[in-house]
Amino acid sequence: MIKNDSLPTSSVFDLPLHLSSNYLAWLAQRLTKGKGGQVVTLNAEMAMLAQKNPRIHDIIQQADLIVPDGAGIIFYLRLQGRRQHRCPGIELAADLIHHSAQQAQPYPIAFYGGAPGVALRAADYWQSQYPQLTILANHGFLSEPEQAQWCRTLAEKQPAIIFVALGVPRQEYWIQDHRHLCPQALWMGVGGSFDVWSGEKQRAPQWFCDNHLEWLYRLYQEPWRWRRMLVLPRFAWKSLYHHFRKA
């Protein structure tokens, strides 16, 4: 069930989706009120995974905010006659960091995930722009004792914004299992964002982003992803089937 009744909603297959021209405003209000929540950035790959993975399906259903991250989601909405701008997760996460830095008392932030060193370099990138920020950072290859210590640190420090970069679906699982540590925090899975912020990888040029081809540039950078990309035509066919079945 969608918990957020203040935003217009739609659906992708049987998954909820919130519609807005300013998702940051809702998140900023949530932070001001000290309310926690989970943000899901929905794309075609996740939508298809949810059709066969009950746990991911339930996580999306229970999320506090679901935004249209992928070009496939925008394609689906347009088939339904809805006009909605894409909201890339990396941009929404960056907007949250900018917003935090602009506060009289910036919200503390945590980065978790990525290869060793990547989260720390991503944190350094942001702190070089905003020295007033407090960012806890740890990589996603922790041993069990290190993982336990990281959880204790989160519980002690209570960051207000927590970005988890473990890839889908691991990051969604980790958030679901650990939200109780910081119940007032905003939790968001951010995929490969740390790689970009750390300088490990480059984001697609603006032309690719503007024309919903960011996935193609990522495939160029990571050709090993081609098998995963096969989900995109399956998503398109399923979207067309749903559209014409309702017509």
Task: Explain how this protein is built.
With 247 residues, the protein is of the alpha/beta class. Helix content is 50%, strand content 15%. It has 13 helices and 8 strands. The strands form 2 sheets. A 6-stranded parallel beta sheet has the order 4-3-8-7-5-6, sandwiched between helices. A two-stranded antiparallel ribbon has the order 1-2. Strand 5, helix 6 (118-129) and strand 6 (135-138) form a beta-alpha-beta unit. Helix 1 (23-32) crosses helix 5 (89-101), helix 2 (44-52) packs across helix 13 (231-246) and helix 4 (71-79) runs parallel beside helix 13. The chain is globular and about 50 Å long. The mean pLDDT is 90.
Secondary-structure topology with pairs:
Layout lengths: L8 E4 L2 E4 L4 H10 L4 E6 L1 H9 L1 H9 L2 E4 L2 H9 L9 H13 L7 E5 L4 H12 L5 E4 L5 H14 L3 E5 L4 H9 L7 E4 L3 H5 L8 H5 L3 H8 L4 H4 L1 H16 L1
Parallel strand pairs: 3-4, 3-8, 5-6, 5-7, 7-8
Antiparallel strand pairs: 1-2
Helix content: 40-55%
Derived from helix and strand composition plus strand pairing, the structural class reads: alpha/beta
Kindly estimate the percentage of residues that lie in beta strands according to DSSP: 5-15%
**N- and C-termini, Cα separation:** 26 Å
The run of helices and strands is EEHEHHEHHEHEHEHEHHHHH
What order do the strands of the largest sheet run in, or round the barrel if closed? 4-3-8-7-5-6
Q: What is the number of E strands?
A: 8
Globular, elongated, flat, extended or rod-shaped: what is the shape?
globular
Low-confidence parts: none
Radius of gyration: 18 Å
Major β-sheet annotation: 6 strands, parallel
Write down the overall mean pLDDT.
90
Continuous helix count: 13
